[in-house]
Amino acid sequence: MAEVICMPKLGFNMDEGQLVRWCKSVGEEVKKGDVLFEINTDKTTMPVESTDEGFLLKTMLEENEYAEVFTPIAVVGGKDENPEAVLQAYGGGESTSAEETPVVEAAPAEEKAAPQTEVAVGDLKLTPKAKRMIQEEGIDPQSLSSIEGTGYEGGITAKDIKASPLARKLADKTGVDLSTVTGTGVGGKVMKADVLEAKKTAEEPKAEPVSSCCSKKVASTVPYKGIRKIIGEKLAESKFTAPHLYFTDAIDTTNMTAFRKEMNEVSERKITVSDILVYAASKALTKYPGINTSLVDGNIITYESTNVGVAVAGDNGLIVPVIKNVQEKTLTKVSEENRDLVDRAKEGKLSPEEYSGGTFSISNLGMFGIGNFTAIINPPESAILSVSSVRKTPIVVEEDGEDKVVIRPMMNIQLTVDHRVIDGLLAAQFVAYLKELLENPLKILM
User: Fold this and answer.
1) 10 Å Cβ neighbour count for 442?
2) Are 380 and 294 in contact (CB under 8 A)?
3) Which residue out of 419, 426, 429, 435 is catalytically annotated?
4) What structural domains does the chain harbor?
5) 13: exposed, middle or buried (C-beta count within 10 Å: 0-12, 13-18, 19+)?
6) Max avg pLDDT among 40-54, 92-106, 302-316
7) Active site residue 244
8) At a CB cut-off of 8 Å and minimum separation 6, what does 68 contact?
9) Using one digit for the tens of pLDDT, what is the confidence trace for 275-297?
10) What does UniProt give as the signal peptide span (predicted)?
């Protein structure tokens, strides 16, 4: 029996996937366990295996194109089966479908016969999730009649219904076309403020067109979607939901450099500054567990595990591979895992489990010569450490009771915390202890 292959959901926050490559051609035999295609999820490239045997009868998605999760993208079945009939039966509900498979709500016969002046739920092609959203939020079906659905066979998905009930009422009252409004809410949802801003913009006098001699030359245009959009939405949600508070200090790296040199003379693996930062952060988190927290569903969760993520700029965008349970490992083991994760992150070969589950993150731009920067918290974590480059800097030290100006290799660090969960005193104590560990790195091993 033929099987409809859908875009899989391989991550909790994954709403759509990009098809990178078909590993089988139409008409080619497919065995159970064969890699059928590869997709870009929210962070990495993943192979997807066939769960059935037969032949690849049809594909509905080109390479490098996007599709929402649970959207049919291929048909695998017997050589003589009709893929169009299979898809028709699938869309009609004769086979088991995922939650986002659209269904057609048919109006009663007597309603069909009478002329309709209003749009009812039964007149729209909705996914179950979209239908539930309409009922729960009291959305007028009439306001959805002009929406072009992005689901299977044009079905309207919950993602297509992108405005809050208050925004819809305000748009109806002011005459603002919601399809032209860019939402700033979670997942691009149009909020009341977005409608007000759109109305204000529409009422402003239009600027004179710029002459052709001053026009911009465009090098390229790419859709704001996929990994870049996911990163943007996630960080925007963090920045505008969690009140960020910042604590900055400078670290004298003289002893840390000497410590690294001694370690690398006896260690089988080369210890990097990143390895030391991860290990020191774990020790500081163990001493101050109030930093090792998350705010989830109204509860403040404090973790015993110190799962430290290290931000990496890979080919597919920013990704944060996580070293789990650092508190239970040696510095050499942390170095080994860190190198492996970073290398595979740059190649886009991490599994979702390897870039999730963090309790604290580090963003290190020191190797790029950045003097100072501010990192945004990676939700649902409550803190992130930004690390800048080492620079020779004149500082004042006390020697023999006198103040002297000396040149030392200094490195700026900045701790960003969610002030809903972490108070200033606790953050200051954490930074002070981390500074003590990095300036006296032997203490990290004690």
Assistant:
1) 10
2) yes
3) 419
4) 3-91 (2.40.50.100), 104-202 (no CATH), 242-445 (3.30.559.10)
5) middle
6) 302-316
7) no
8) 7, 15, 16, 100, 150, 151, 157, 159
9) 999 999 999 999 999 999 999 98
10) none
